[in-house]
Amino acid sequence: MTTAVRPDRRARMALASLLAGTLLAPLNSSMVAVALTPIQRDLAQPLATTTWVVTVFYLTACVCQPVLGRVADRVGPRRLFAAGMAVAAVASAVAATATSLPLLVLCRCVQAAGVSTAFPCAMVVIRRHGDATRLSAVATVNTTAGAVGPVLGGLLTSWAGWQAIFWVNLPVMLGALVLAWRAIGPEERQAAHGGLVRAIDPVGVVLFTVAVVGLLDLMLALPRVSVPGLAAMVVAGTGFLWWERRAAEPFVDVRALGSARGLVPVLGTFVLFNLAYYGAFYGLPPWLQTALGFDAAHTGLLIMPIAATSVVATVLGGPIMRRLGVGRTLLAGGGLLLAGVAAITTFDTATPAWAIVLDGVVLGVPYGLCNLGLQRLMYERAPAGMSGVVGGLFQSARYVGAILAVGLVGAFAPGDPAVPTEPRALAVAMAVVAAAVIVILAHDLRRPERYHR
What we know:
By secondary structure, the protein is mainly alpha-helical. The chain has helices spanning 7-22, 24-31, 36-43, 47-50, 52-75, 77-96, 101-115, 118-129, 135-160, 164-167, 169-183, 196-200, 202-220, 227-246, 254-259, 263-290, 296-324, 326-344, 353-381, 387-412, 424-444. It is globular. Pfam families: MFS_1 (PF07690). Residues 14-446 form the Major facilitator superfamily (MFS) profile domain. It is found in: Cell membrane.
């Protein structure tokens, strides 16, 4: 005999399961960073090859987030989320027992696809319940998981080997699966007009994937120009836009996105914001190690305030937005981002450690505020029936910004490994990007009705 679950309790259970699933993507993308050297040693592979364990996760998640968001919009979140958790659990278990790098990379690809169901499904469920305040919980989980990932990954790897970073996923994934199946409403929408495969739009998905791969190849090749990467990005990106405007069942309804006033600027601003933020986040460690002589442990301690402050700012972001409004909160975050990256232009070998830590605190605040504020605007401006795919595109914008940042960090790095890294040129470029973020936000703020809901 089953016991009925009260609606309010059921809603809380559903949110808890989706939050558990949502933390898995940032957690698994960050935990593995500190396990690369042990993986390289155990599997006897060069470090450059081993980094595919990281790259393939980002690439797969970047593509799968909007694709699976489309599926969530069509069939509902319950079965999709449960299937994603089951697939990710199997992939994690196989990854923990992998004895070759190709198998491990394949498992990471499948794992990324599975956990990519969580954020789009969370957007669909939040839209279903009509409670935008739950967005703060989603943003907090995302930020916190990314911040604690390297620490947790380091502890697990030290205690039980790199395999532990995959085993630790299983109770979370299976618990989220069981809880979601019980709590998320059973009402599911069926794909029409030829079934789910046609609704997903395979041609659009392939063109989108090729464009993202081309962008990744182009940025990782900097300062050289990868002709194949550039060609793939331009041709596939143009073909994607052309196809999506004409497809009967587009994977991304670009017409609807274009007609949803203010949505495209939100996605574009999020790309630029992450480009500036991750440019500083990834650009500072090489300078700290090559120019100032800090080891990896001390470098991590100096960078930790960025992640720690971002968590605090995300938690406090909800009350701040309720008091100041979303627009003013975003502008304040953009101003702090500009101040943080501009300060790096003054750094040199005489810069004291306390100044670096203080700048990290300044940089962490806008990540919490802007991430939460832009997520709120994305949710409000998403067209009806597109919450999942728009949520997926929002996450893809985050990954694209990070990819661009990694490419620019490499482009500004000296060609000779013996030459210390100089942060000023990169910081100037990031300051220009941060200024562009402020300009776009200020222009959008001229329509105040969007910011006071």
